[in-house]
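Hypothesis: this fold can be encoded by more than one sequence.
Test: take the structure tokens below, design a sequence, compare later.
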């Protein structure tokens, strides 16, 4: 079995790993590069022939994991995309939305290009093509082994990161080789997140591909972050401003609504107006409601009491551009939740343009901000940023509530690998910036795990690794036989002690 790391290796976004098993080619994820990664690597070209890919095994619906599937289809992929049921449904709205955003951005760019006498360009894919690509999706339930083809079985386990998100277990049997178990972590969730369960611990694996997004950081306790959000809202409203929350439409938005509902129910927040300005967020919230059977115990308890944790009085969803524009006329007392979470596209840029320069307003980041994105620039302390070609001063109060992140922190990542009953032969680190991966590697190795940082384009031949392991075992057996020859009278305790030392 051969592995090649083609995305989210040496960077955070663009998750994509190529597996060659017998005569089949399988992708683990096929995501878009975003922010700095997109500028450096681009999304237009694949490092393989899409027509030769037989399957995509998809960990979850976030665009940096799924967003190039429509392009894969456009370039000739006609295989199956295998994922959980909730991931399939979320992709059915997220991928067309991604295509729509691309169309709008290209339309804006082409108006400028035409004025400059340049040829127009095309989007990576359209909303319609993205919709058609979702017909390739095949869904399955959590915790059930399925045979993808002879030599590959997969099982999806709850990753606790997003509705439908998965840790993927793969049992791989190649001709004349021993079976190998590979585990792909996908994105591991933060513990105690609203609505969804904590990440599943896996008993065993020979090799692990593992994300390290927050491998160098510890989150604040999530309960403290909830209280901080309430305090920010009250303080901002008191000084006459709005609270703007750039949020991923799928996942973070629903979790923020859950938290706000909780504090409205306990009357710590009263008479507030919350605008969710994202048609995608509205559609995905309905999908969240559909899969209430996979909620955590607390959310299920709220549902059984007759309360919908994702809706409350004062909550308004905006669908049309006209409704969105009306929100920008509100000067104070509004909480605006809008996508995209990294402020790179969508309606959030309009809300930042109207509120970022106002000292009385607050901008609250609740998710990861990739390097090179507008969100990261604001979070890193930029005094001015450019939005729609206009320079905007950053005068609003800026907050980052990392405890609300959907990703496990350093402690959560370490706890997860400690959950293996037998240590994997090697853990292959991906999906993190250089500092995060390096720091987590040091920590994991201090806990006696063997780790390797994977680079973009790097190949990893598990068959060669396994052959070396077998050869090493043969050499140890020879040494053991030599030891037995040296013992005249076998002392059981002495023999066991020698065997233990040789096989370590």
């Amino acid at each position: 079995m051969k592995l090649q790391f083609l995305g989210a290796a040496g960077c955070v976004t663009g998750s994509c790993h190529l597996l060659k098993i017998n005569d089949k080619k399988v992708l683990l994820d096929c995501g878009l590069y975003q922010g700095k990664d997109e500028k450096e690597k681009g999304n237009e070209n694949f490092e393989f022939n899409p027509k030769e890919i037989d399957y995509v095994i998809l960990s979850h619906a976030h665009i940096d994991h799924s967003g190039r599937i429509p392009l894969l289809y456009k370039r000739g992929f006609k295989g199956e995309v295998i994922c959980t049921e909730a991931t399939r449904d979320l992709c059915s709205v997220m991928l067309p939305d991604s295509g729509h955003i691309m169309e709008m951005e290209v339309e804006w760019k082409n108006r400028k290009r035409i004025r400059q006498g340049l040829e127009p360009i095309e989007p990576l894919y359209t909303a319609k093509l993205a919709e058609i690509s979702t017909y390739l999706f095949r869904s399955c339930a959590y915790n059930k082994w399925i045979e993808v083809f002879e030599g590959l079985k997969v099982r999806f386990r709850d990753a606790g990161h997003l509705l439908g998100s998965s840790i993927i277990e793969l049992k791989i049997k190649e001709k004349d080789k021993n079976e190998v178990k590979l585990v792909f972590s996908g994105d591991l969730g933060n513990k105690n997140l609203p609505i969804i369960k904590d990440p599943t611990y896996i008993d065993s694996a020979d090799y692990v591909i593992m994300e390290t997004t927050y491998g160098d950081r510890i989150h604040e306790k999530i309960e403290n972050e909830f209280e901080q959000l309430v305090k920010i809202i009250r303080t901002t409203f008191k000084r006459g401003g709005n609270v703007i929350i750039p949020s991923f439409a799928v996942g973070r938005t629903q979790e923020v609504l859950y938290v706000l509902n909780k504090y409205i129910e306990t009357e710590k927040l009263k008479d507030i107006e919350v605008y969710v300005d994202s048609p995608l967020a509205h559609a995905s919230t309905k999908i969240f409601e559909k899969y209430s059977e996979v909620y955590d115990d607390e959310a299920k308890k709220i549902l059984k009491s007759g309360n919908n944790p994702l809706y409350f009085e004062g909550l308004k969803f905006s669908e049309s551009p006209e409704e969105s524009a009306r929100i920008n006329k509100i000067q104070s007392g509004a909480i605006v939740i809008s996508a995209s979470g990294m402020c790179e596209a969508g309606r959030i840029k309009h809300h930042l343009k109207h509120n970022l320069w106002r000292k009385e307003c607050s901008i609250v980041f609740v998710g990861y901000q990739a390097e090179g994105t507008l969100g990261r620039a604001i979070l890193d302390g930029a005094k001015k940023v450019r939005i729609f070609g206009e320079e905007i001063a950053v005068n609003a109060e800026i907050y980052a509530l990392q405890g609300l992140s959907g990703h496990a922190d350093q402690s959560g990542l370490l706890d997860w690998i400690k959950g293996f009953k037998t240590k994997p032969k090697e853990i292959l680190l991906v999906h993190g910036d250089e500092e995060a991966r390096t720091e987590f590697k040091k920590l994991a190795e201090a806990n006696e795990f063997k780790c390797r940082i994977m680079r973009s384009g790097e190949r990893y031949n598990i068959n060669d690794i396994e052959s070396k392991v077998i050869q090493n075992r043969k050499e140890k057996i020879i040494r053991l036989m030599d030891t037995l020859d040296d013992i005249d009278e076998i002392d059981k305790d002495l023999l066991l002690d020698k065997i233990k030392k040789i096989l370590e």
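The first strand starts at residue 2 and ends at 7. The longest helix spans residues 85-115.
Hypothesis status: open.
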